[in-house]
Amino acid sequence: MELVIARNPDPDSSLPYLLLLPLGDGLVFRTKGTWPRTSALYCHPVTLDEWPAEPDVVERVPLRACARRGAAIDVVADRAREHRSQVVFTVARGREMVFWQSPRTRKQARPNVRLPTARAAGIVELDVVVDAHERYAYSFPGQQVRTTKRALACGDYAVELDGKVVAAVERKSLTDLVSSLTSGRLRFALTELATLGRAAVVVEDRYPAIFKQEWAQPATVADGLAELQVRWPTIPIVFCDNRKTAEEWTYRWLAAAHAWASEEQAAVARIGPAAVELPSTSEVRAWAREQGLAVSDRGRLRPEITQAWRTAQGQ
């Protein structure tokens, strides 16, 4: 007896996998993952005829038990970890729905915390830009948010002021965090986020979970995160217990960033832009030579050279 996961041959489906449960003649579902590791997986029931004659099998999981109990199917895998799960039949928004969940994701679905509904930063309706490539994006239910989907240069969720992105949040599941960290993709993502005035990374899990995952050395992941935070101290990496609280944190952080940017713009209009930091001596020396100014090869720069650089920058 085994659970079988195969790739969905339908290229137009948003659910990339087929799940075959050995119950009765067999139950087939379309689903978006191979196991409910970080969140409950939505399952769309289909007929047995939809199972391919020659399936592209991704994983075969031996089972100790697969039995229906009321409105749920208990699935117990024959392995030491990630062995318990349930396929639950329920009704949501007036229609029947099926979810595949594990004890961990079931607990996350009910974090035993009531999220506030008050408007963040007093904003009546926050406009949030969602990256066009973001799958299963936050919808911010219960909050005064209007979302627009389009391509973002960096981050998954952003707010704008006068048509310019002023803050962005990069969303990560624990699996994606570890993968992007070990491959180096997260480093490049932070480099791009650093070009914005404000940016953050939110993780849909708790920090101790990095020491329990098995697909990378926990110490390597912890060291990598610490190194990134030292290198980019202005970009916080925030761990939330689950997707729901990560979504709430993202909403309130973006609202605060938008309010701050509005106040900052008003301050610039009143007192002018902040002074541009002077680059290193070698950079100013190279700039002066490009302008045909005489500078020494070493030592401190003459005050008139520094003033010339500031004048060129509009200070």
How would you briefly describe this protein structure?
It contains 7 helices and 14 strands. By secondary structure, the protein is α+β, with helices and mostly antiparallel strands.
DSSP, total strands = 14
* Structural domains: how many: 3
Mean pLDDT rating: 84
Stretches where pLDDT falls below 50 for ≥5 residues? none
Q: Characterize the quaternary organization of these chains.
A: single chain
One letter per element, helices H and strands E, the order comes to: EEEEEEEEHEEEEHHEHEHHH
Rg calculated over all Cα atoms: 26 Å
Q: Report the total helices.
A: 7
Shape: elongated
Q: At CATH's second level, what is the architecture of the largest domain?
A: 3-Layer(aba) Sandwich
Q: What would CATH call the class of the largest domain?
A: Alpha Beta
| The CATH topology of the largest domain | Rossmann fold
Distance between the termini: 74 Å
Class computed from helices, strands and strand pairing: alpha+beta
Spatial arrangement of strands, main beta sheet: 1-2-3-4-8-7-6-5
- Largest sheet report: 8 strands, antiparallel, barrel
Strand content: 25-35%
Helix content: 25-40%
What can you see in these coordinates?
The structure is a single chain. With about 325 residues, the chain is an alpha+beta fold. It folds into 3 domains: about 1-110, no CATH class; about 120-270, Rossmann fold, CATH 3.40.50; about 280-310, no CATH class. It contains 7 helices and 14 strands. The protein has helices spanning about 105-110, 175-185, 185-195, 220-230, 245-270, 280-290, 305-310, and strands at about 1-5, 15-20, 25-30, 40-45, 55-70, 70-75, 85-90, 95-100, 125-130, 145-150, 155-160, 165-170, 200-205, 235-240. An 8-stranded antiparallel barrel has the order 1-2-3-4-8-7-6-5. Strand 5 and strand 6 form a beta hairpin. Helix 6 (about 280-290) packs across helix 7. The mean pLDDT is about 85.
